[in-house]
């Protein structure tokens, strides 16, 4: 099962069966019902959602204490299990299963997450939102509002769309990197360092407690080699949650990227 297979499946489902042309038309519970899966809500301990299937029918139960975007993602996640294993599922999914799957279930949970991401923010509708867009906090909030999704999921989807050449990275208050996600074409020498880089806007935010807003910084700050020494890169850094800080890094001028790729490929 590939990402393209999931994308094509969801687009066909939404366009051919439901005629969905706008984000506001995505009613994930109604879509589940049409797929013979009834959605219920009740307080759950130790998990965000569960699905029980019997034959061609299923019941998806989501945690009633979660917020709306989380509930919608949970439904999409369990639908992913249903699409993959219809008729033979009985599954409990914790918050960590959805956020950061590990162990033997990692591939299975990642697949369900891919379904959820595509069901809630389908690629064919996201493209319209990204036309002539800047990679910044305003874009994330705009897409988040349009699709009624969580901030983190929205940010991941925007980066995974490969529309902007760059990445997002999250650093802790102590300067250590927590996680990052990137454009699939971004070469390794442009990956964010494991500690917050001096000269970056996120360094100023974390270390110097200065919020300088979005703008250009020297390219070498976000490149591990010398490909961007004479370039600039757009960066928007902001506080995310508790001791976590986000930086959106966007190479508007992609020339350093392609020079690096061409050199490494011997072109």
UniProtKB/TrEMBL annotation:
Transmembrane annotation, as ranges: none
Gene3D superfamilies with a match to the protein in the record: 1.10.10.2910
Record domain IrrE N-terminal-like: where: 57-157
Signal peptide: none
Pfam families with a match to the protein in the record: Peptidase_M78 (PF06114)
Record protein name field: IrrE N-terminal-like domain-containing protein
